Amino acid sequence: MSWRKDQGRAERGYHHGNLKEALLQAALDLISKKGPAGFTFADAARMAGVSPAAPYRHFRDRDELIASIAQRGFEQFEQLLTQAWDDGRPDTVTAFERVGKAYLAFAREEPAFYSAMFESGLPVDSNSTLMAASERAFAIIRAAAERLAALAPPGTPRPPAMMMALHIWSMSHGVASLFGRGDAARRKLPMSPEDLLEAEVLIYLRGLGFLTDRRPGAAAPADDKPAGPWGKPK
Amino acid sequence: MSWRKDQGRAERGYHHGNLKEALLQAALDLISKKGPAGFTFADAARMAGVSPAAPYRHFRDRDELIASIAQRGFEQFEQLLTQAWDDGRPDTVTAFERVGKAYLAFAREEPAFYSAMFESGLPVDSNSTLMAASERAFAIIRAAAERLAALAPPGTPRPPAMMMALHIWSMSHGVASLFGRGDAARRKLPMSPEDLLEAEVLIYLRGLGFLTDRRPGAAAPADDKPAGPWGKPK
DNA sequence: CGGCTCATGTAAAAGCCGTTCACATGAGCT
DNA sequence: AGCTCATGTGAACGGCTTTTACATGAGCCG
From CA A208, how far away is CA B125, in angstroms rounded? Predict the structure, then answer.
């Protein structure tokens, strides 16, 4: 993999042509390999085949590059969640669970994005467009919670959707950041992070009074002994 | 500008006397101010009034200093949780809630420790004594979960204590790291992180079948409409 | 086609940091 | 008193971030 711009096509001399994009891509590579702390501006420049000063034509400083990555991360995250939610199809609870899984999948498959978004230590509220992107992503969870809240069993108080959304988010982020990634902070778990989160969310939903038992033939779980949402640890 | 310890008291010459401790203290200060990434070895040395090379007599490198801080953090954390749990007094659920609050309090009041422990990006499993300290802290949560699981209402399946402990941990860590600290990643919340976590845990416990309504005169909540564990946002 | 301009690159340099090495100091023991 | 070893110093290397002055050449205008 030669970084040089002999990318199959014409030798591109003095000007790179698409340096900004190349830098973002390089940064993603580096962050996913060495964490957001280990990533260096100079390395990204080297990988893109330019001098260490070149990146400054495109980013005010190193933090702005990371912020750009976080920005993109939130956008992709929003897309992924939107897709997973699929407007609540085929049913609200199923879709909701799918969102949880998508959250974990994102954290695992895009560790660079995830750590830029949540673990880079950069002030989220400093950059207003970043903040907005983050809130658009959260809005998906919030909308899902809204739909779920509307399903509250009659006779029970309807839980505040915002609170539900925050709860779900904290569970997802907690599981993802403690147990989610390959080897960071790995502890021996009795189950996969996915199963852990699924059980957690199901128990939580049940605590709100939702009937979350969606197994075939479990239409009226009211009378039999409530089976736990945790299966046998597989 | 004399770097010497003209610290009010005796002129301490060539030898510092307690450099290791001074470095740890300085690092704590710096980390709490600028995050674990912003902290520099040289700064700590400067703050302790020694040359930049001196710290290497006490720590192999910068990472080892951070690991030492994380280690201490886990020890203090364990103490705090033990104290909060107080062996389940006056009753299991109350004590359990107190542990949750202690968790958040620690994250908020000792941000330097907390970020060294959970957000510094250092491999937890590289250092076995660090790993052990981390597990001793988790053991408190686990023990509390065990006691709670034993209280499962008769006739319901008893939830695995380990799973409960992991769930509680992920909720606490999620809330702490998303909403816990002063200005990092602050979002507008409808309630305090403490209340958010308390409601989350109570709903979760209810989902497991526990009667978590501990308000005076709420002895038999089985027949009245279940009041939500979320109060009015205060 | 010739020339202007400005975005985008480079080279060099300043200042910081982490880390190492040879050397200095002095605290504690014999 | 003298020895020794833990602990500190200073200088040096290489790398990173960031700034500055300068170079290049792509796109546009006449």
Answer: 37
**Closest nucleotide to A51 by C1' from CA:** C10
Q: Do residue A170 and residue B171 have CB atoms under 8 angstroms apart?
A: yes
Residues present in chain B in total: 234
User: Is residue A29 packed enough to be buried (19+ CB in 10 Å), middle (13-18) or exposed (0-12)?
Assistant: middle
In a domain, B100, yes or no: yes
Region of A121 (left: φ > 0; alpha: ψ -120 to 50; beta: rest) is left
Residues 6+ apart with CB under 8 A from A119: A36, A177, B119, B121
8 Å CB contact of B199 and A163: yes
Report the distance separating Cα B228 and Cα A157, nearest Å.
Answer: 7
B157 lies in a domain?
Answer: yes
- Identify whether residues B84 and B191 lie together within a single domain: yes
Same domain? For A135 and A185 the reply is yes
- Assess whether A55 and A75 both reside in one domain: no
Q: Chain A 192-221, CB below 8 Å of chain B: which residues?
A: 196-197, 199-200, 202-209
The domain that holds B117 is classified in CATH as 1.10.357.10
User: In this predicted model, what pLDDT tens digit does every residue of B99-139 receive, in sequence order?
Assistant: 999 999 999 999 999 999 998 888 888 889 999 999 999 99
Structural domain count of chain A: 2
Query: Of the candidates A178, A208, A226, which has its C-beta nearest B170's C-beta?
Result: A178
pLDDT digits (tens, 9 = 90+) for A170-227: 999 999 999 987 654 567 789 999 999 999 999 999 999 887 665 544 443 444 444 5
- Are A30 and A113 found together in one domain? no
CB A128 within 8 Å of CB A186: no
Instruction: Report, as an integer, the average pLDDT of A26-50.
Output: 94
| Domain annotation covers residue B212 | no
pLDDT tens digits, residue range B96-107?
Answer: 999 999 999 999
List the Cα angle B189/B181/A71 in 5-degree steps: 70
Q: For residue B27, give its domain range.
A: 17-59
Q: Is residue A126 part of a domain?
A: yes
CATH number at residue B25: 1.10.10
Please tell me whether residues B118 and B39 are part of one structural domain. Answer: no
For residues A23 and A136, state if they share a domain. Answer: no
**Cα angle B164, B168, B172; round to 5:** 170
**Smallest CA–C1' separation from B57: which nucleotide?**
D7
Query: Do B30 and B132 fall within a single domain?
Result: no
Q: What is the DSSP letter of A178?
A: I
Cα–Cα nearest to A174, from B166, B130, B77: B166
Q: Which residue of A has its CA nearest to B159?
A: A228
